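Reopening this one. Same input as before:
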Amino acid sequence: MVRMGVIGAGYWGPNLIRNFASLDEVKLETVVDLNPKALEKIAQAHPDIKLISDANELFTSDVDAICIASGAPSHYKLAKQALLAGKHTFCEKPLTLKTKEAEELVKIAKEKDLKLMVGHVMVYHPAIRKIKEIVESGQIGMLLYINSIRVNLGLARAHENALWSLTPHDLSIILYLFEGEHPVGVSATGNDFLTPGVEDIVFLSLFFKQDTMAHVRASWLDPQKLRKLIVVGSTGIAVFNDIGKGSVVEVYDKWIKVKDDGSFEHNRNEKPVVYELGEAEPLKLECQDFISSIIENRKPVADGESGAVVVSILEHAQNSIKQKGAYLSL
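Same output, byte for byte:
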């Protein structure tokens, strides 16, 4: 039984609280938030949980693990306090806002033999897991590039741009699918149409050693909601459209090859192989992985190291935007 506490009961916190509380191996004891109204809502759904406003009380308690679901600017300070207090730590994305801070948290967790996990929930999505299986099996040949689109006429933000708000999901997916390959460079452009200095749209390119690459388009100024992942291989293409109910991955037997004489051979099979994967909740799978990693003493899938790499990419991409898309080495 893992005894837990959660810091943050605002926008995303209630979802984490609900899922951790549903696990048989967890005793969710305490929730911390500065907002009394947020705590009142938690009390209605979970009357047995202790509700407090001072995080220090949680750090000095005898819980085994702490989940941090507060705002991103507070992640580093709270995660560091939790780790130094000897608590396994789950932190929502992004892990921190600076690479050196993320790397420091990874170092502390390693020194204290604690689990540090980041809330990269999309790597727990059944469709993403299936695409990884497809890539590793060689079903679409050698992985060439990934194109990820995350756009909508959505909730605009005045203090956090589309890069930091939206692309961590896509970056975590890309790193998961390119597992074992560290990105070597990044280039990004964007524009601030609504609030000066806060980019509403971002185009990000990520480069890997084997001349493979990935591209992300993120915006809250597009007229149509699109969440689409296209994974292109040398002998096929996997597509996941994350809109609507259920999880469906389509694999197309479509490719172009260069013949010995320099001409091109095309294969345009328009009928895909369709994998219907049901509606398992990725967030519950994510929470279960954190708890299992503690009980089984193993690394979680979305570990601190992967979280630190995402922060590094974000930080370099932000600098690239300032330099009008300059290529920056990672």
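So the earlier flakiness isn't reproducible anymore. For the record, The first strand starts at residue 2 and ends at 7.
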